[in-house]
Design goal:
globular; 3 helices; alpha+beta; 43% helix
């Protein structure tokens, strides 16, 4: 089980990324969901690092990711692999972000 302190540390690490805005409630819920999916302390820490690197990749290359459709039109989805995918090589995580501003919405 992931401690509250470790989840708060993960949130703090993600929010230190320069030029990023996030909805605090969604970020807390996403980190909580990651803690449920990756309940081993070391795995959770490694997954948070992979999320941070994926967010930074999005900022390096705004064209990265696929355009979404329907009610998510105007958003892109960048898929990436966590360090622990259920199927080796599977892109089991994603960062969803609007194409028009610097807000990042995490999802997996």
């Amino acid at each position: 089980m992931i401690s509250r302190e470790l989840m708060v540390a993960a949130i703090n690490d993600i929010t230190t990324i320069k030029n990023i805005e996030m909805d605090p409630k969604h970020l807390a819920l996403d980190v909580y969901a990651l803690a449920q999916a990756f309940s081993d302390k070391e795995e959770f820490k490694e997954v948070i690092v992979s999320v941070i690197l994926a967010i930074k990749d999005v900022f390096k290359d705004g064209d990265i990711g696929d355009d979404l459709k329907y009610r998510l039109e105007g958003f892109k989805s960048h898929h990436f692999s966590s360090p622990y995918p259920k199927i080796p090589g599977d892109e089991d995580m994603r960062v969803v972000y609007p194409t028009y501003k610097s807000t990042i919405i995490l999802a997996f």
